[in-house]
Design a protein that fits this description.
The chain is α/β, with parallel strands linked by helices and about 300 residues long. It contains eight helices and 18 strands. Strand 14, helix 4 and strand 15 form a beta-alpha-beta unit. The protein is globular.
Length: about 300
């Protein structure tokens, strides 16, 4: 690995409905992973300028300039409650984009890029809010536990999630007037809370499910004409957002129902995949303003 390496075209796992995970060591050789679709590049830390910046938290390690843009650096060890190493001991930066926010994670080393089906990912957010999934990966010919960290929880802990009453009052101008229902699929507790507050504030009849399989089960139980809108995350257990969107848009019974993708995976590769399926909109997760504008487009007052 040399310099700044683009990964936006490196892998095409999202085309095959598997998750590709970039597996890495944190500072103390704990094995963690991130969905490759959220990664813009792997950056050698010593090849970029890192500036210290005043911060209220040890989690923010500074600002790096990557591809000519300022990128907030996050020390995952600090966020996970693990003692931090000296800055120079973190050899790599995983440069990511979450909800249109550019973030770099300081890590010790990359291990591998692996493919996992949703069946191979154990959803564990209920027991640890900082963990989305656990799975097993091969490291030196041994099966080792690997943790996929919860990006939405990290963003909320940094104060980057707009979910308060002030935000809702600012962007939700008036209530919608429709008897139809909005179906939503979202596995993140943080994002479900934001969606629930939004639906209630906007006066929307809604049902929200922890994964795409449950949403599709419910969709098949009810009259399609009673559904005003489907909102789906992408990265979910059992049935992911790609599968939800494909099922709806490729089935003549449901294809007229608008689908909005609500995801922190906002890279061009992911958007292009969803656009090819035929979704009706793509918004960054927990973006209340964009959520309201999307709802306004598809729901009657």
């Amino acid at each position: 690995m040399s310099g700044i390496n683009s990964v936006e075209q490196m892998t095409q796992g999202h085309l095959r409905n598997v998750q590709q995970l970039a597996v890495f060591y944190t500072g103390h050789n704990n094995i963690y992973a991130i969905n490759i679709a959220k990664v813009k590049a792997f950056v050698i830390a010593e090849e970029v300028t890192i500036n210290d910046t005043p911060a209220d938290s040890d989690v923010v390690a500074g600002i790096a300039t990557i591809r000519g843009e300022p990128v907030t650096l996050i020390n995952l060890d600090a966020w996970l409650g693990i003692p931090k190493l000296k800055q120079e001991e973190y050899k790599l930066i995983i440069y990511c984009e979450f909800n249109h926010k550019k973030v770099g994670f300081l890590i010790k080393d990359m291990l591998d890029i692996v493919e996992k089906t949703t069946d191979e990912l154990r959803h564990t957010e209920e027991t640890n809010s900082k963990v989305t999934y656990t799975t097993y990966v091969k490291v030196h010919e041994k099966d080792e536990l690997c943790t996929v960290f919860n990006a939405e929880q990290l963003l909320q802990d940094l104060g980057w999630v707009e979910d308060g009453e002030d935000t809702l009052n600012k962007y939700v101008e008036s209530k919608f007037n429709t008897n139809k229902i909005v179906l939503a699929a979202e596995d993140s507790g943080v994002a479900r809370e934001v969606l629930t507050k939004f639906f209630k504030k906007a006066g929307i009849n809604y049902e929200i499910y922890n994964n795409g399989a449950l949403l599709l089960d419910r969709l098949e139980e009810i009259d399609p004409s009673s559904v005003a809108l489907i909102i789906t995350d992408i990265e979910m257990p059992e049935t992911d957002g790609f599968q939800v969107a494909s099922f709806v848009k490729q089935n003549s019974k449901y294809s007229e129902i608008p689908i909005i993708v609500n995801s922190s995976m906002t890279t061009d590769a992911v958007k292009n995949k969803m656009n090819s399926i035929g979704v009706d909109g793509f918004i960054g997760k927990t973006d209340i303003q964009a959520l309201y504008e999307a709802a306004k487009k598809h729901l009657a007052y």
